[in-house]
């Protein structure tokens, strides 16, 4: 009888198919649409003619050939999006991260209890890996300045690097999808299918992720938990590296670095550092505990995070903004408030989940549920059910504000436009009629992140409702607000 019970626990529980993100059609739209969106943002907001490109401001008289010249469309068309050289360096980047995961010391930790009663072990050293990598880049920059080949290569091959990472993410998602069909009951390595990732629809399952925690053992490098590795390492580090490359680009263009781009680069790096330093807390998040690893997380971690989240510095590299002490203080205050809410609320949640007997939990109030779990109703988590999301969103707003009323047009040397930023090669950058239109690109992250967090809160509430039943309804009567107290 005990054997049957163990076997049943290792099988995914029968479930009614529940689609998210618009089901198979929505999944297909995201899989094919987001790569196109990032490419559109790259071309439409460029360092050749403007942000947006001048022709886009006059759609009625739009000429395709003129637009191609304005956005820097490759002479060989779509073939110009890809280069083997960029793909080689991209693969080398992931391999380098894997080597650091293997050779640098790290903390060994166990994840949460799985549906089959097992627990996975993780090696955590992303923070030290990032510091090691940035130390190498700092040494190169100290030696060669803004002309350090890493920075110039990224600027000169941004489109090809974007394509290489898109292809890598898609290839990785395909690999884990195909390999997920190897998962069998009572797998000795605790391989499980994600509860919502095996609907039977290929497109949807490919997007959402079939296997919960796919792992691979590589020669010399050993075992790598693909989801945890990709979630916290190459994308966050890539975000920092891209920002640094744009700082170097601004210096090459103007001979100085503006306070706005330096400020954003530093605070976003601190955000990434914080996430990696608190890597143990990742093991209790929705991404690790509930979601499978598919295209959604592969693309999100490896492409969306570094290439979308660095849009502000990409913009400021060409159109510098000087905030001054008062401007920096205001933006810094918004970011600090957001970070304090985000970090302290997540710390309280993680401490309560992993060690309820911790002295810091002595005054925490909670309700017991029929599942044996406890739901906090005091402290940060008595304010709203997803108070950490509010802190996260406030930070995203602070990242975009330094671009002000974004938008610029690049004029040829000698134009003599009033108030223009003059590049070292003589070209002039003015806001002109593009003023405000550039916010489509630099503030897109704020809008997207708000939609993401609201959707994510809804997903979490649905899952908790299914898990806790009437206890969840009782909890919601006590903690009434979803994200923003007294508003939403």
TrEMBL record:
Cellular compartment(s): Membrane
Membrane topology: Multi-pass membrane protein
Transmembrane segments: 21-44, 86-104, 124-146, 158-178, 253-273, 322-342, 405-424, 436-455
Coiled coil: none
Entry-linked PROSITE patterns: STEROL_REDUCT_1, STEROL_REDUCT_2
One Pfam match: ERG4_ERG24
Domain of life: Eukaryota
Signal peptide (residue range): none
A single GO molecular function term of this UniProt record: Delta14-sterol reductase activity
GO cellular component term of the entry, any: endoplasmic reticulum membrane
InterPro entries for this protein: ERG24_DHCR-like (IPR001171), Sterol_reductase_CS (IPR018083)
Keyword Transferase: no
Alphabetically ordered keywords of this record: Lipid biosynthesis, Lipid metabolism, Membrane, Oxidoreductase, Steroid biosynthesis, Steroid metabolism, Sterol biosynthesis, Sterol metabolism, Transmembrane, Transmembrane helix
A single GO BP: ergosterol biosynthetic process
UniProt record similarity statement: Belongs to the ERG4/ERG24 family.
Protein name, as recorded: Delta(14)-sterol reductase
């Amino acid at each position: 009888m005990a054997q049957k019970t163990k076997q049943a626990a290792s099988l995914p529980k029968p479930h009614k198919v529940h689609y998210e993100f618009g089901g198979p059609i929505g999944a297909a739209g995201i899989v094919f649409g987001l790569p196109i969106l990032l490419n559109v943002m790259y071309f439409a907001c460029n360092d050749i003619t403007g942000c947006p490109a001048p022709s886009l401001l006059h759609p009625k008289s739009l000429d395709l050939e003129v637009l191609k010249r304005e956005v820097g469309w490759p002479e060989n068309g779509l073939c110009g999006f890809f280069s083997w050289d960029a793909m080689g360096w991209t693969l080398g980047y992931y391999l380098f991260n894997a080597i650091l995961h293997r050779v640098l010391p790290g903390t060994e930790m166990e994840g949460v209890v799985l549906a089959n009663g097992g627990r996975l072990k993780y090696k955590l050293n992303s923070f030290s890996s990032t510091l090691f990598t940035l130390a190498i880049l700092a040494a190169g920059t100290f030696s060669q300045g803004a002309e350090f080949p890493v920075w110039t290569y990224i600027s000169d091959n941004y489109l090809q690097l974007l394509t290489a990472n898109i292809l890598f993410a898609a290839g990785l998602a395909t690999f884990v999808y195909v390999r997920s069909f190897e998962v069998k009951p009572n797998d000795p390595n605790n391989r499980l299918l994600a509860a919502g990732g095996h609907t039977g629809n290929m497109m949807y399952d490919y997007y959402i992720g079939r296997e919960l925690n796919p792992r691979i053992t590589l020669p010399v490098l050993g075992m790598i938990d693909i989801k945890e590795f990709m979630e916290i390492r190459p994308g966050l580090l890539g975000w920092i590296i891209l920002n640094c490359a744009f700082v170097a680009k601004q210096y090459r263009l103007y001979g100085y670095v503006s306070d706005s781009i330096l400020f954003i680069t530093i605070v976003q790096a601190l955000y990434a550092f914080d996430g990696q330093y608190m890597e143990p807390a990742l093991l209790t998040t929705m991404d690790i505990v509930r979601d499978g690893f598919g295209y959604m997380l592969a693309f999100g971690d490896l492409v969306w995070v570094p290439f979308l989240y660095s849009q502000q510095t990409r913009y400021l590299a060409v159109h510098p903004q000087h905030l001054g002490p008062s401007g920096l203080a205001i933006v810094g205050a918004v970011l600090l408030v957001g970070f304090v809410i985000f970090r302290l609320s997540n710390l309280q949640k993680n401490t309560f989940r992993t060690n309820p007997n911790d002295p810091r939990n002595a005054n925490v109030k909670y309700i017991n549920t029929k599942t044996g779990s406890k739901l906090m109703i005091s402290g940060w988590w008595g304010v709203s059910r997803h108070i950490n999301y509010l802190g996260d969103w406030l930070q995203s707003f602070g990242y975009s504000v330094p671009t002000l009323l974004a938008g610029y047009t690049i004029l040829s040397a000698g134009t003599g436009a009033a108030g223009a930023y003059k590049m070292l090669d003589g070209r002039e950058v003015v806001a002109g009629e593009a003023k405000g239109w550039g916010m489509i690109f630099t503030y897109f992250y704020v809008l997207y992140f708000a939609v993401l967090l609201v959707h994510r809160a809804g997903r979490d509430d649905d899952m908790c409702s299914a898990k806790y039943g009437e206890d969840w309804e009782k909890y919601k009567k006590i903690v009434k607000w979803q994200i923003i107290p007294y508003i939403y």
